[in-house]
Amino acid sequence: MTAALRVFVVGGAISYRALFNWITPGMYVTTMLGSPLFQILFFVYLGRYAGTQDDDFFVVGNAIQIAAMSGIYGMTMGIANERQYGTLQPLLATPANRLAIFAGRALPFVANGLVVSAFGFAMSWLILDFRPAEGSVPSLVLAVTVTTGSCVALGMLIGSLGLRARDVFFGANLVYFLMLLVCGVNIANEDLPGWLGAIGRCLPLTHGIEAARELADGAALGDVAGLLWTEALIGLGYAAAAYVLFRVFEAEGRRRASLETY
What we know:
Number of helices: 12
Number of domains: 1
């Protein structure tokens, strides 16, 4: 248990440092903080012009959705790049607990997503006069954490496909922008066509954003517990599917000696 915990925590941190040591502070600020900030501003001012919803609707939706940038893109790279950088074979040659190896890679991306989302909320408070209900911040933090974890789980699934697919980043782009459309970020889920709304309800973000909006309006945590549990279960489902694929592709790669072939 101690060894598995060490692999989970220390291994995940070392993997993140090794795979993303090319990121400079300037690159991080412009990509992970600047771009999400302008996304929030764009949709808030577009919403003001259209008059469809109030500012809080767009602030909450986009401030949570921007965490998916780390969850989808980062987590996809965190798994798929092991193959691209030639480190997959040595990694899988170790006797370390596979679940600890796999799950430990999620921690840095959950933390990164929380930082990006917190930055989005903070800048909305400073620039857009966003004021959530009094006492709602701890509940909002919980909602953002659950939703970010769910997005990271979906990124795990796409990253696991990267152990076999030639170009997994096309899928990551497709899923990221699909979530922006169908998960209630800027258009309420019930306002979408039925089939698009059904897709959105099967993806991360949808229930978490809905819960966060109610919390920001003053709802109690118990009032949105069902939404948060649904969000968490969706994330667990994607994480389980991702782990199964990871083990299947590992076994297939060993059998065919094709762990790092394209």
